[in-house]
Amino acid sequence: MAKRSSLSIRIVEGKNLPAKDITGSSDPYCIVKVDNEPIIRTATVWKTLCPFWGEEYQVHLPPTFHSVAFYVMDEDALSRDDVIGKVCLTRDTLAAHPKGFSGWAHLTEVDPDEEVQGEIHLRLEVVPGTRTRRLRCSVLEARDLAPKDRNGASDPFVRVRYNGRTQETSVVKKSCYPRWNETFEFELEEGAAEALCVEAWDWDLVSRNDFLGKVMFNVQRLWAAQQEEGWFRLQPDQSKSRREEGHVGSLQLEVRLRDETVLPSGCYQPLVQLLCREVKLGTQSPGQLISLIEETTSTEYRQEVATTLLKLFLGQGLAKDFLDLLFQLELSRTSEANTLFRSNSLASKSMESFLKVAGMRYLHGVLGPIIDSIFEEKKYVELDPSKVEVKDVGCSGLHRPQTEAEVLEQSAQTLRAHLGALLSALSRSVRACPAVVRATFRQLFRRVRERFPSAQDENVPFIAVTSFLCLRFISPAILAPKLFHLRERHADARTSRTLLLLAKAVQNVGNMDTPASRAKEAWMEPLQPMVRQGVAQLKDFITKLVDIQEKDELDLQRALSLQAPPVKEGPLFIHRTKSKGPLMSSSFKKLHFSLTTEALSFAKTPSSKKSTLIKLANIRAAEKVEEKSFGSSHVMQVIYTDDSGRLQTAYLQCKCVNELNQWLSALRKVCINNTGLLGSYHPGVFRGDKWSCCHQRDKTDLGCNKTRSWVTLQEWNDPLDHDLEAQLIYRHLLGVEAALREKHRQLSVGPEAGHRPTGPGEAPEDPLAELLQVLGDLQEAHRSSPAGSPPSEPSRVLELQT
């Protein structure tokens, strides 16, 4: 049994930001920190005070996190990036509103005295004295303190204040993980001060000391308890008056916290088996639970439910059967071919999720080179005469204005080249398409052809396939390549226009060049010859794609199962510490790494033979490394055991904070069930004869900081978590239980009620009654679990700002 927390984050846009550059503009991006740990960086939007990001993230966290903060930054090429402002949401605030935050939030200026982090280990005792009792405060150690100096560390000391007296520890130089082990005593007198204040400071020789945080204790409570020891979170100095909000702009956010208590696997088996049985029965099932789930699910939650169901059935090997059932249900209620899969039905949403989970790597192979070419060329492309910008052309001073016709013709040529390249890549990719995707499209094609068999509807099965492949997968990826992990940055205005026009062309091809699609924008006419040619290519591609026999499908699946598909791969710099001298960034060697469910391997190039660096079962932790250790904030360490059982560490450097967190997330997820995972680690390196972080001289010291093995980012290629998916389905069904009971009541008094006989002790033959019984059993299991039953969700969403 485990309690898990996740944050759904959507960073929408900003407005009225202050200008930070001499041009009167800014280059804003967002950094998201959980408990002061950067986990997300959005793309930079250049030269704007009203940026739009539209980026979504799902972050899995331990239930003990305290806050999530959104920092809006201004990127500078020649100096440190400027902090524009921040929005901070505490865990308690988020937990009080399970439907989440949605709306605009005022940015506040960043006060250095509020930018505190870390914890301090204290022991507090009330001990008898010669005449009066004494309060003894032992300052043991601290961890994860804020780095205040340019070297990426601090010089911390602790100041203890009580009843007008102040005592200080010694200064620990260049450490965010200091150990003091110093004890102070104060006399306790009746009527004396009621608060003991413990403050952490960064000592500075020239300038004033920097505040690192404080902890306040109620002396009366200590007197009653006699002793208290533990790690205490450092708090900001809130004694100063708050600054006025709203003068540094606003940020539009959607943030939702979800806490789940996941029961042991056996508790979910009845629910999973019931749903799997319904899928296997298909439309022959008398209750059609999948249809009832769709009927009782509001549009707001349909995508979430579709994704969860899809993952659950993927884990059971029934994704194709589940989607086939949805296809049949959709076709049974569709009378007009031109309305097929046009609504936001469970079938449409599930198919979108399926393509992202099962087909993203395939999409990258087909579309990636075309997108890269568009970003690198940065050509001006425009087909709409009302939007054409005439530029000067020529060389060596012989400039002449380009005519509108020349601009339009060059733009058409560029788009025809990109469209042709994409269609050619698609045509060559039949064998590269994953077997389960091919099999699903084959079922879709066959079902639609059976439903619309007439000659006038001969294109309908093709359009059914392209409505998902082109309109809901390839075109959205062209429009927003960053959201599909095709690029790290958003496109600039010129590139965005090229991508938009190419996406329109792909949509016209996907619609089989119908008159309705042509009539919308007549200025797309120069692309019509290529579109008509593309329709023929696309039909030929789909014909080959769905022409797969059961035997071929099984052979493909076996071939794929023999390979461990990469969970993540890409170039990294590696360094393994051997010498006693200082470690410099130049000692890193660039290699191509590949993480599978078996090992972390490397090679000189992506196509070279791979050598295993670390077997997956040997990994004990994957954590960040202090910036001061290598002069870079993007270094991670993988702690593992070698063949003799000794702990070793590999240091890997990434190019940016996002890549760092993605690699850490991937490593943590594939190792989450490893035995012997570490609970603590050293964020520094063992240099010379001591650890750079806490200055301890024992190389085998357990570590001065907590590991963060549960902090991960959700990705499309995540390993399936069967118990969590079942819990999420249970949670949703519990929320619509009243609607399901009402539906069961209606069915019970209907004409078929007499055909569902049940005897004493027999399981009900009515699947809906069985589902309600399973939900009741799960509800009771949650009540009897230590964490208690999951909270019910209120019907409102808290608006940040109207």
From TrEMBL:
**Which GO molecular function annotation, any one, does this entry have?**
phospholipid binding
Arranged from A to Z, the UniProt key words for this protein are: GTPase activation, Metal-binding, Repeat, Zinc, Zinc-finger
Query: Which residue ranges does the record assign to the C2 domain?
Result: 1-105, 116-232
Region Disordered: what ranges? 747-802
InterPro entries given for it? C2_dom, C2_domain_sf, PH-like_dom_sf, PH_domain, Ras_GTPase, RASA4_PH, RasGAP_CS, RasGAP_dom
This protein's GO CC annotations: cytosol; plasma membrane
Q: Which GO terms describe its biological process?
A: cellular response to calcium ion; intracellular signal transduction; negative regulation of Ras protein signal transduction
Lineage, top-rank taxon, reads Eukaryota
Q: Which residues form the PH domain?
A: 565-672
Query: What sequence ranges are listed for the domain Ras-GAP?
Result: 301-511
Q: Name one Pfam family in it.
A: BTK
Annotated signal sequence range: none
Determine if Metal-binding is one of this entry's keywords. yes
The record's PANTHER family line, in alphabetical order, gives: RAS GTPASE-ACTIVATING PROTEIN 4-RELATED, RAS GTPASE-ACTIVATING PROTEINS
Under what name is this protein listed?
Answer: Ras GTPase-activating protein 4B
Provenance organism? Odocoileus virginianus (White-tailed deer)
Whichever gene encodes this chain, its name is: RASA4B
